[in-house]
Amino acid sequence: MAGAAVVGRRDERLGETPVAMVELREPGSAGVGQLMDFLRDRLARYEVPTEIAIVDAIPRTPSGKPDLTEIRRFFSEAVPAVHREHVH
């Protein structure tokens, strides 16, 4: 993994749930299922993202930090061009 960013997304039942954007060093080296298994073994249930999107590059600010506004926007829109999976 080259990088990851997690943001909260509004949820009617829970108030907010985590969603993650992941940038892989080697495209295709891991899938959403593998990432979820890894996270479930290491995080509390409420910390595990409800959706993971594997992208070519995480949006960044001019200073190089993840652009959380753009990442939140990404998860609020339907973006079929990347690998996204909603997990239960």
UniProtKB/TrEMBL annotation:
It comes from the Bacteria. One of its GO terms (molecular function) is ligase activity. The keyword Zinc does not apply. InterPro entries: AMP-bd_C, AMP-bd_C_sf. Pfam families: AMP-binding_C. The keyword Nucleotide-binding does not apply. One of its GO terms (biological process) is fatty acid metabolic process. Keywords: Fatty acid metabolism, Ligase, Lipid metabolism. Residues 2-65 form the AMP-binding enzyme C-terminal domain. Belongs to the ATP-dependent AMP-binding enzyme family. This is AMP-binding enzyme C-terminal domain-containing protein. The lineage of its organism: Bacteria, Bacillati, Actinomycetota, Actinomycetes, Mycobacteriales.
